[in-house]
Write a structure and sequence with these properties.
Elements lengths: L3 H7 L1 H12 L5
């Protein structure tokens, strides 16, 4: 779970990106 930065830097958009990262564990 290293997409905390994405959530903080995106807000609502971060939630979407976090979901994408959650679906793709290969994504850094």
């Amino acid at each position: 779970m290293k997409y905390d930065v994405v959530i903080v830097g995106g807000g609502a958009a971060g939630s979407v990106l976090a979901s994408r990262l959650a679906e793709n564990p290969n994504t850094s």
